[in-house]
Write a sequence for this structure.
């Protein structure tokens, strides 16, 4: 049996199912990632002569594939958020980034060192790669397609989408810290000053500023250039979403900034250039279709890696760490971060619970292990792999019923909740002067997909 012919057939089947399954699984307690993870397991158990898709053996390929998957997803996430930037409007996001993520990293690092027995660099790396929520696998709890209504998103879907759009880039400084410790040791004098000035300061600022600049220039080209022939929004060509993605990512990475932050910032700047233009829908739809195809490929490979030995190095302490992250650490740190944030307590708990781990975890782990030596690399991959598999299954099964329950509950309690911790904390003059700008939209907002799109529950 010719291996290339088998690969073509599998890719074709996967692409076909990627178009069918979102419609079939809509409103059911089963997600497309679960289906393709299971399919990958079945395919690689069959005697087809397929090579073992081990991320340890093919760390470089793993890094490149997951890198592409993440940046395409970040472009889609940035384009579909309707809510403009604002300190109060994005209050939930800032809290999740500034409080929940560092606390999550600290807790996992402590568990990794104390309970799992990892070296300091390896413990910090494990914590860093498991910190970001995933923009690729989290579509069931994210906002839907772009609209021309600025506050059309409910707080849960908005917070989870915006968090996933930003924390992939903001996890990178902690990955760099782990790489530095692995190279020069734990003594802060050997790495801390450079880490703070370059990896935290310079790279973040350049990532955001570079992304905004590229997005501003593309926005001018798409919507405002004088020549109608060059005003690209007129031609409705969706593939330009990929042009914006790779241009922003490549240029910012070339000058040493964080490309993940740049891609999301570029998408937001394009959106701000002409907020209600229908071309945003075209760009988003194309990015989403490419993202779905990449997700299918990555999940098939993950399923194959699971059944060919990815999880074999697991120990019981490693299992405890992975499960603690999903069921204890993220929910508690997320809920703590959201005290006083917009929304009701029930919404805060849903946001905290659905910190989905996924493709970004594998990118960071592949990147770090190809740039520095870490002891017990196989255990790191196994622990991260288990966390992602558990997240895919648990969050995939729970997403639809939980979100439907939340929507029904909010629909019945449309009046302000007397237990709402954010009562009175809505908008200000700095956010366009509307006192209602920061209020959480009702459940009737566009959280679910249009009939022709994938489930957005």
């Amino acid at each position: 049996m010719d291996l290339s012919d088998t690969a073509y057939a599998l890719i074709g089947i996967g692409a076909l199912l990627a178009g069918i399954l979102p419609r079939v699984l809509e409103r059911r307690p089963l997600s497309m990632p679960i289906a393709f993870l299971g399919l990958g397991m079945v395919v690689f158990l069959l005697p087809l002569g397929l090579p073992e898709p081990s991320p340890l053996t093919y760390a470089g390929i793993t890094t490149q594939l997951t890198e592409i998957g993440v940046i395409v997803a970040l472009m889609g996430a940035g384009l579909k958020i309707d809510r403009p930037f604002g300190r109060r409007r994005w209050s939930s996001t800032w809290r999740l980034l500034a409080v929940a993520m560092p606390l999550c990293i600290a807790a996992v690092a402590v568990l990794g060192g104390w309970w799992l027995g990892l070296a300091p660099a390896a413990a910090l790396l494990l914590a860093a790669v498991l910190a970001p929520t995933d923009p690729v696998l989290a579509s069931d709890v994210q906002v839907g397609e772009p609209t021309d209504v600025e506050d059309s998103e409910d707080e849960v879907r908005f917070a989870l989408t915006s968090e996933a759009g930003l924390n992939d880039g903001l996890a990178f400084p902690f990955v760099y810290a782990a790489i530095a410790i692995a190279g020069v040791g734990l003594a802060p004098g050997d790495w801390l000053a450079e880490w703070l000035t370059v990896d935290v300061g310079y790279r973040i600022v350049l990532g955001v500023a570079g992304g905004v600049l590229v997005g501003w220039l593309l926005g001018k080209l798409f919507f405002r250039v004088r020549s109608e022939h060059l005003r690209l929004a007129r031609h409705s060509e969706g593939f330009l979403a990929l042009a914006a993605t790779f241009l922003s990512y490549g240029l910012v990475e070339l000058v040493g900034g964080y490309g993940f932050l740049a891609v999301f910032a570029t998408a937001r700047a394009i959106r701000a250039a002409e907020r209600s233009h229908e071309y945003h829908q075209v760009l988003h739809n194309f990015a989403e279709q490419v993202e779905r195809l990449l997700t299918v490929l990555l999940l098939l490979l993950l399923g194959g890696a699971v059944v060919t030995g990815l999880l074999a190095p697991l120990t019981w302490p490693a299992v405890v760490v992975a499960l603690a992250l999903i069921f204890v650490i993220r929910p508690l740190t997320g809920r703590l971060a959201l005290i006083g944030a917009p929304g009701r307590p029930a919404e805060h708990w849903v946001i905290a619970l659905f910190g989905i781990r996924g493709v970004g975890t594998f990118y960071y782990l592949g990147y770090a292990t190809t740039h520095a030596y870490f002891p017990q690399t196989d255990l790191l991959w196994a622990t991260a792999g288990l966390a992602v598999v558990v997240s895919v299954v648990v969050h995939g099964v729970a997403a639809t019923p939980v979100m439907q329950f939340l929507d029904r509950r909010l629909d019945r309690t449309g009046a302000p909740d007397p237990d709402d911790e954010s009562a009175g904390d809505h908008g200000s003059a700095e956010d366009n002067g509307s006192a209602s700008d920061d209020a959480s939209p009702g459940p009737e907002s566009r959280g679910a997909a249009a009939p022709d799109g994938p489930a957005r529950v």
Notes: The domain at 31-413+421-426 is CATH 1.20.1530.20 (Na+/H+ antiporter like fold). The chain is about 65% helix and 0% strand. The chain has one domain: 31-413+421-426.
